[in-house]
Amino acid sequence: MYRRIHLALLVAMLPCYILLNSCILLHILLPHATAAEGAGTKHPSNNSASLTFNTFENSTYGIKMIFPSNWNKEQNLSEGGSNYGKLVDIVRFSPPFENNNSDKSSENLDIKVDNISDIQPITLGKYTNDSIEDLGKDFKIIWFDENATISGGIPAYELEYTGTEQDVNLDAMIVFTMKDNKAYIISYMAEPSRYSSDLPNVQKMINSIEFFK
Fold first, then answer.
1. Which pTM was predicted?
2. Which of 37, 39, 47, 84 matches a 20 to 30 Å C-alpha distance to 141?
3. pLDDT digits (tens, 9 = 90+) for 109-138
4. Is 127 exposed, middle or buried, given 0-12, 13-18 or 19+ CB atoms closer than 10 A?
C-alpha cells in the first residue's frame, strides 16, 4: 500500500520536477544563446579609412592650410590681372572623380593673391566691391556677408553666386580677405550636384588657413 502511495506521489510530482529543471536549464542556456545570436548577427563596425588631411604651405606668400589627402593639388599656375595689380594663382585643389566625368575641370578651390602695396590705403570693402563689380552682370549673387571671418578672426567678405560658365551650370563661393599688403581671394566652384556634398571639406580647408608672413 505504501509503495502504491509513494509511486503515486512520484508520478504526481514528475511534471513539476521536469518543469522546474526546464526553467533552470533555460535560465542557464538562454543568456549564452542570446549572446551567441548577438555575436552571429552583429554587424561589424565601419572601419573604412576616414578622410585624412595634408598640409599645404607656401612661404613666398605666407599661407598655410590643410586639404584632403585624396584631392589633387596644382601649383605654379599662370598669373592674371586684377583691377589693381598682378593676380597670382598660389594653388588649386580639386577632388577626385570617378570615370573621368565632365565635371572634373569644373570643381576646384583656388587661392589667389594680389599685391596691393601700391594702392594703400584701401579697405577690404572697396577692394571686394571693385573686384566683383562685373560679377553681377553674368551671375546671380544669392548671398553676401560683409562680416565673415577666417583664420581665427581675420575679417573677410564672403559671397555665393550661381550661373553658367562655358555652358556649365555652376554654384560658387568667393572669400576676400587682406593681410598686410596682400589681398587673398579664395574661390570655390562646382556643378550644383557636387557643390553641397564637398562644401564641408571646402569650409574646413578655408577655416584652417593661416597667414604667417
1. 0.70
2. 84
3. 999 999 998 888 999 999 999 988 888 888
4. buried
